[in-house]
Amino acid sequence: MDVAGLIASLEASGLATGIRNSLYLFPLIESAHVVGLTMVFGTILIIDLRLLGLASTQRRFTAIASDVFKWTWLAFAVTVMTGALMFVTNASTYYNNAYFRAKMVLLVLSGLNMLAFELTARRSLHVWDRHAAAPAAGRAVAALSLALWIGVIFLGRWVGFTTSSVPVPADDVDLEKLEDLLPK
Ligand code: HEM
Prior knowledge:
Blueprint: H1 3-12, H2 14-21, H3 25-52, H4 61-89, H5 91-95, H6 98-119, H7 125-128, H8 136-163, H9 175-181
This protein binds protoporphyrin IX containing FE.
C-alpha cells in the first residue's frame, strides 16, 4: 500500500470515524495532548537550564536527570499517542499541511540533538557532573533543544489554525447562511 492509500485507510478506520463523530473526544484528546506536551517541555526545560548553568546549579546533573527523565518519557508517550489519535481523524489534511510536516521534522531533529548529547558531553559527564554548567557541546545541545521544542509548540498551534475548513463567522454574518459553510 502506498502512503496515500495508508492515509486514506487510517482516515476511514472505525477509530477515526468514532473520534470524528463525537462532540467530546477530539477536545478531550487534544487537552490530554496539551497536558502531555507541557510536561515534556517543562521537564526538558529543567534539564536544559541545568546544562546551561542557569538553574539547579547546586545539584549534580545526574541526580536531576534521573529524577526528571522518567516523567519526560511518560509524557512523551502520552503526547505521541494523543497526537496519533488526532492525526488519524483528518490524516490527509494533516499529512499535506506544511506546518504539520515541519513539526515532525523538528521532532526528529530534537531526537538527533539528544543523540549528539550522548556522543559528546555525555561522554565526559564524570568530569562535569558537579560543575555549574555543562561544557560547550552540552550547552550548545541545551540551547538548540530549547529552540527546537519551542518551534514544535509554535508549529503545533499553527497546524490547528491552518487545517480548519470552517471560516470563523464575522459578527454581522447571517447565522442561517452559516449552515452552508459547514461540511455536509
Ligand atoms: C512532544 C511532542 C509534541 C508537541 C510539543 C506538540 C505540540 C502541539 C501543540 C502546541 C498543539 C496545539 C494544541 C492546541 O492548540 O490545543 C498540537 C496539536 C496537535 N498535534 Fe502535537 N505535539 C507533539 C507531538 C505530536 C505528534 C507526535 C503528533 C502526531 C503523531 C501530533 C499531532 C498533533 C495534532 C494532529 C494536533 C491537532 C491540530 C489541530 O488542532 O487540528 N503532535 N501539538
